[in-house]
Amino acid sequence: MANGADFVTIYFYNTLKRTKEIFTPIDATRVRMYVCGPTVYDYAHIGNARPVVVFDVLYRLLRETYGEDHVVYVRNITDVDDKIINRAAESGESIGAITQRTEQAFLADMGALGTMLPDHQPRATEHIPGMIAMIGKLIAAGHAYEAEGHVLFNVSSYREYGELSGRNRDEMIAGARVEVAPYKNDPADFVLWKPSTPDQPGWESPWGRGRPGWHIECSVMSEKHLGPTFDIHGGGQDLIFPHHENEIAQSTCAHGGSKFVNYWLHNGYLMAEGEKMSKSLGNFYTVHDLLNEFPGEAIRLALLKTHYRQPLDFRKAGIADAKKELDEFYLALRNAADVKAIVPDHPPAAVIQALSDDLNTPKAIAHLFELKSRLNGARDADEKARLKGELLLAGDVLGLLGQSPDAWLRGASGEGGVSDSDIDALIAQRIQARAAKDFATSDRIRDELAAQGIILEDGAGSTTWRRQ
Fold first, then answer.
1. Distance CA 289, CA 270 (A)
2. pLDDT tens for each residue of 33-66
3. Quick one: 208 exposed, middle or buried, by C-beta within 10 A (0-12, 13-18, 19+)?
4. pLDDT tens, 389-409?
5. Cβ–Cβ under 8 Å, residues 91 and 98
6. In the CATH hierarchy, which top-level class contains the domain 272-409?
7. What are the residue ranges of helices labelled H in 291-380?
8. Sequence ranges of the domains in the chain
9. Which of 96, 150, 315, 461 is paired with 343 by a 20 to 30 Å CA distance?
10. Which residues of the chain have pLDDT under 70?
11. Which fold has domain 11-267?
């Protein structure tokens, strides 16, 4: 991708301001974005995947706009957490084995969805000294206090607390994941450091052996790689309170009141088959399991067809529809195999304009469908080559259409399915039968393959095939 900063203005809905704003980076030569990453104790579910895919598209847009070398994307790995400790206790597997295995599974699954690796993927356990140092600053400045081996942030010391979420005091105390404990001066105060028992992971600190609270981890990792103030912080809507609210408080107070983040972006909630995801309802979908049924690109397209800020009702039928739509795109590209794509310097303006308007992926995808229709209707070789190049580059900025059309359309045979070589042999027999005017045999072979989900398409002097 090339630098296109001279032809586009980007707008984002900023959760902090509750309005859409023009995006103006602090430094256009180093645009900085942080997104909360996984807690590595189990396979990622489809709700975890939504922000990964959404902010991958944003990363691609920023690289297109400001240049690939001028964007820094950080997504953390939380590898010390009570969920991990509990999973180790339940399973008997070591914490190190759990975190290593699930981190690799996360990266593999997200890679199958076509997401790019961030520039940095810091692990919480690699930044403990920085966390201890930031907690020390907060204590020294009167924003935190020690109590019974814990260190807690003093919420009353930060007047703007609650500004991001818009919650009042009663809502904060009643909010999810706010622990009420006798050692707190105020029920709204939150943990920066907690004591560890001998069988729990822990590090020596001025407050005894312990481990960090969840919120301090992101404040320290973002500062390490992006500085105390940066451009964009992203994540799911469920993280607005308390996680992102607490990040703002501790980071701002640790740096003498300096602003922490300029633009806060949050994707909407995800339902599955019309209801909240639940294992008891049978609609709890891990990406790992979905990839056994559907191509990753179809899952990605299904996620992007809804605007990122809207709630998404994720359905398996929607992935199947996305798979059929991708079949149509790859058919159009395969039918244009006779021309070499003329790839423009930038993706089509209509696609970039859609994404620049608060990441409007449904509108951008609509332009891809328009390009596909025009490509299918093109008769002039130069026009076909130009439209093919535009479609490929438009797909690239959305993380779509990057596969070989033949590889996509032939797909995987699956267990017990007819193999590629068997299909090619049957097609050869059918060609011989047609040449001998044995149309009964020709039709029988076509019907047999169709019954196994193999669609034949006869063209000028050749026959191609694809799996349904």
1. 17
2. 999 999 999 999 999 999 999 999 999 999 999 9
3. middle
4. 999 999 999 999 999 999 999
5. yes
6. mainly alpha
7. 296-304, 316-335, 349-356, 361-377
8. 11-267, 272-409, 412-467
9. 461
10. 1-7, 173-180, 412-417, 461
11. Rossmann fold (3.40.50)
